[in-house]
Amino acid sequence: MIAPMQFMKHYKFTIPTLAGALLLAGVSSLTAGLTGAIFTTNSNGTVVNGNQYDSPCSVYLDGGPGPHAPAHAAGLPDGDYFFQVTDPSGKQLLSTDAPLNRSFHVMNGVITAYTGTGGPVHVTASDLVHPELGAITIRLANSSCPTDFLASPNNGGAYKAWVTPVTSFVGDPTMVDNTCSAGCFHGFVPSASKTDNFKVNIAAATFCLDIKKQFLTNGILTPGITWEFDVTDPNGVTNPFFTDQDGDVTICGLAAGPYTVSENASSVVVGLSVNKIAITPSTFYQFNWSIGQPAPDIVFTNQGQLPPPPPA
């Protein structure tokens, strides 16, 4: 370990890697005020400071420039960061995973990569405001949502999102919560952090949409990996989502209303089922969800390699 440097009886370790970012608990940060900005948004980053949400599963974190702003405007300094969710006062930590799983990388003033490890992943989406920089948004809740993050004790459903550089974090990033001295909140020092308040209407009914992609090849089903599905919500906004290694994608925090799920198929669709009931195959499916209905579970099956023709 690199020897600590002493400045006016405050101590800080210089850490070479994200995984090794272990700082002594209860000490003050020496980092000057953090420049740039963060804000909560929808998955594609087109809403700035959208501080009203129907579900914790629909709140995404963005940093730097908003719509119609140049790429350098309000950008966070390049580097690695942790984020957390608390009540508005910062006293109660509401994130349920460790900071090491709540981390991301900034390049050219925008978030470009989710770097979390050691817990359920925080899903990401393409930031349509600055796609030329490879910008992304990160969901504040991990994939265990809606159980993560915890409900706010605030009667108005208010929350606070925090971001701090890895080098300014005070504590052990492998622990969910970190006790530190006065003026420090769960390892985050306000002078070295950026925050943004938002509200979640926890009384609003939401649902999770499950989509699966598979290929039928010579009678064998295989998953469609990183397959794009476009979901159009009741507001007419279309967001892209991509399947995982199992050919699955789950989108939570969706409110009641009409939806369209579509794919840009490169092969023939031979099967389509909703909640295990087969319907006419198509490259899209439209539905209208309302309270009390089951959450849609949609499976698209495409034709893979055709079987060889019978011998002449």
Taking pLDDT < 50 over at least 5 consecutive residues as the criterion, the unreliable ranges are 1-32
Overall geometry comes to elongated
Strand order within the widest beta sheet: 4-12-11-6-7-8
Total DSSP E strands: 22
What fraction of the residues are assigned to beta strands by DSSP?
A: 35-45%
SSE pattern:
EEEEEEEEEEEEEEEEEEEEEE
Average pLDDT number: 82
Termini separation: 74 Å
Instruction: Please state the structural category.
Output: mainly beta
Helix content: under 10%
Largest sheet at a glance? 6 strands, mixed
Radius of gyration: 22 Å
Number of helices: 0
Structurally, the number of domains stands at 2
How would you characterize the overall build of this protein?
By secondary structure, this protein is mainly beta. It folds into two domains: 5-200, no CATH class; 206-303, Immunoglobulins (Immunoglobulin-like). The protein has strands at 5-7, 10-12, 38-41, 52-53, 60-63, 79-86, 103-107, 110-114, 124-126, 136-139, 158-165, 194-200, 206-217, 220-223, 228-232, 238-242, 248-255, 257-263, 269-274, 277-279, 284-289, 297-303. Strands 4-12-11-6-7-8 form a six-stranded mixed beta sheet, with no helix packed on it. Strands 13, 14, 17, 19, 20 and 22 form a six-stranded mixed beta sheet that branches. Strand 13 (206-217) and strand 14 form a beta hairpin. The radius of gyration is 22 Å and the shape is elongated. Mean pLDDT is 82; it is low at 1-32.
